[in-house]
Amino acid sequence: MSDFEGLRALVTGGASGIGRATAELLAARGARVAVLDLDPSSVEKPLLGYRADVTDDTSVREAVAAAVADLGGHGVLDVLINNAGIGAQGTVEDNDDEQWHRVLDVNVVGMARVTRAALPHLRESAHAAIVNTCSIAATAGLPQRALYSASKGAVLSLTLAMAADHVREGIRVNCVNPGTVDTPWVGRLLGAAADPAAERAALEARQPTGRLVSAAEVAGAVAYLASPLSGATTGMALAVDGGMQGLRLRPV
Ligand code: NAD
User: Fold this and answer.
1) Is the CB of 54 under 6 A from ligand 1?
2) What is the ipTM for the molecules in this complex?
3) Is 204 within the bounds of a domain?
């Protein structure tokens, strides 16, 4: 993989899990990286941390402007990783309107807000790439994930539409579709189970590989799609799910 020397990147939700692993990998490969997160208190050098709520347009605009200025590229941003997201469980009967608006606001509209603020800076780059964190939930038909699946289906559609809109500007737009990734998010879900260890073992047993995907493995796929190595790829979804989609399996 080519390195990111001289490139400037912005990662939303980069204080934890997949976003954190991605921010660290891009920085290790030579990028200057800014992290936007609700809670950036754990973000350490060389990463730059900014507090931002992707549901608040003013907060997003201010954080993107500050980050781009501090990254020092005279207004140029090369890479945007739209990764901030939240989960929701249950069937269509289990989530009320407020929950629907909240999850769609973070997972879908939040992505649009950050992208809107970042696009003028991405247009100045010779290697502009956007990578959205989607999910196998976008197309798998997962049980007990109606709202979350709908939000990630929208992320997939948004990725394709953005790829079409910006291809002539030299801005590539792709997404990754992770399976079940061992992050604090999944830790919280398992922690809520009656027997977390048994629940984890059952979850691992349902994976084709017999284990969960690591955040570093998703970061590797994101880095590939963000790097000039994938320069002819746009409008694509890359599964990082231990074979779930490729082997036509479905976690029921
Ligand atoms: P995580 O909870 O470990 O990290 C999410 C980060 O996003 C946190 O740092 C959080 O503070 C931040 N965030 C949440 N709401 C925000 C907001 N309104 N504004 C700014 N930042 C906000 O979760 P993760 O597992 O690393 O998930 C990251 C992304 O990966 C999400 O989009 C999620 O849907 C997706 N994903 C996760 C999995 C999985 O199994 N963990 C699978 C598929 C897709």
Assistant:
1) yes
2) 0.99
3) no
Task: Give the integer Cα–Cα distance in Å for 91 and 111.
Answer: 24
pLDDT in tens, 55-95: 999 999 999 999 999 999 999 999 999 999 999 999 999 99
How far is 221 from 223, CA to CA, in rounded Å?
A: 5
Nearest residue (CA) to ligand 1, atom 33: 85
Q: How far apart are CA 62 and CA 50, in angstroms?
A: 10
Domains of the chain: total: 1
The verdict on residue 205 lying in a domain is no
| Span from the CA of 171 to the centroid of ligand 1 (angstroms) | 24
User: How big is the chain by its Cα radius of gyration, in Å?
Assistant: 17
- Give the range of the structural domain holding residue 141, as residue numbers without chain letter: 8-181+214-239
In this structure, is residue 94 part of a structural domain? yes
Residue 14 · residue 47 · CB < 8 Å: yes
CATH number, domain of 82, equals 3.40.50.720
Return d(Cα 15, Cα 139) in angstroms, integer: 27
Tally of CB atoms within 10 A around 107: 27
Atom of ligand 1 nearest to the CA of 53: 19
Q: pTM for this one?
A: 0.98
Torsion angle, CA of 177/186/34/100, rounded to 10 degrees? 70
User: Residue 145: inside a domain, yes or no?
Assistant: yes
